[in-house]
Amino acid sequence: MTIPAATSAHAPLRVSTPEELLAALPYLIGFPPRRSLVVVGFDGARIVGLGRVDLPTEPEQYAPVARVVLAALVREGRARWVSILVYEDIPGEGSEVMLETQLLAQGCGLPVPFARFVQEGTCEEALIVEDPADSGEMVLWRGPARPRPSVSEVPAVASALDWLPAVHASRGDLELSVSFSGDLAEALSAFTRHTEGNGTRVEAAQAWGEYLWTSRSSPIATAVGAASLVLPLGETNFRDALLGWLCPGILPEDAVDPDLRSLLGTALPFRADLESDLRGLLLLVRLTPDAVGSAAADICAVAAHVAWVRGDGALASVLLGRALRCFPGHRLGQLLSHLVSLGVRGSSVAASHARVPRRGQ
After folding, report:
1. Are residues 258 and 143 in the same domain?
2. How many domains does the chain have?
3. Distance of CA 174 to CAs 22, 100, 178, Å?
4. Same structural domain for residues 229 and 81?
5. CA-to-CA distance for 231 and 353, rounded, in angstroms?
6. How far, in Å, CA of 312 to CA of 339, rounded?
7. Cβ atoms within 10 Å of 142's Cβ, excluding its own
8. Which of 112, 114, 163, 195 gets the highest tally of CB atoms within 10 A of its CB?
9. 276-296 confidence digits (pLDDT tens)
10. CA angle 247, 251, 255 (to 5 degrees)
11. Which helix (H) or strand (E) segment is 348 a member of?
12. Is the pLDDT of residue 139 over 80?
């Protein structure tokens, strides 16, 4: 479950009807949700937070799942009301989750002006009403099924397609986009040679500076280049100093080795650019094979951290999943995975660089 960031480099996406929200959600999440609970936080018509989680399968999980999603939105503190959507494969399988989530939201002081059950091609209104047979008991009422709107039928979303992120066909498709996609023999050879070479911090800083400069236009890297950039991340101090530069404000200055901070400050571009820097990091992710273990986990975790600060919760989640598959004990991966699962983002300084709330796990 993730709560993406709430600001945008473009005009904020505003939605004022259920139809607009239903059309926008695949773009904000990154893929069409299935069997999911989605809670969207609003301040007026502006989206300020979004959480997605798989529908729980056991009754005892209903309330805890709803509580985690809402706790993250409440923690962010900007939502004035929420919309709740339950995506079902089988009509009725999400009724109890919807009931629990609406009651918890109202208990947190968050009104729920509209809530919907969503199935393939249709949606139904979901209202909490007083049980006529038991005064004081609240029950769920499901409205009649209505057709789901297409994007072309929703001008507010159709007009924003030039800057909204692309939609992956599924979560699996998103995972595939961050998988290794190079020549395995070539990559393993490059990583082996650079491991034996043990380059200096100065060389690593210069390599990162040159790479990030070029990635501002069109990121290009080879297996050898990827190895020279990824392997220095195995030094925790170097990795943390680079993260501190990539995500300003995420780490206090005294947490970073002053010599490294000075070195990277000289070698790296004047300021971070989350969009282009993330693009360059993702290329390195795709050029780093799982077989190099901790090195693959290092670059996946760094890219995940940037994605999370930028507001891309789904991308951060799949990157962390790959990091922990490559090296299950990776400490940064474990820590960040825990923060993402709780919807805890980075500092407000770092968050100011994020874009539209876009992809929930």
Report:
1. no
2. 2
3. 20, 30, 7
4. no
5. 27
6. 14
7. 15
8. 112
9. 899 999 999 999 999 999 999
10. 140
11. helix 348-351
12. yes
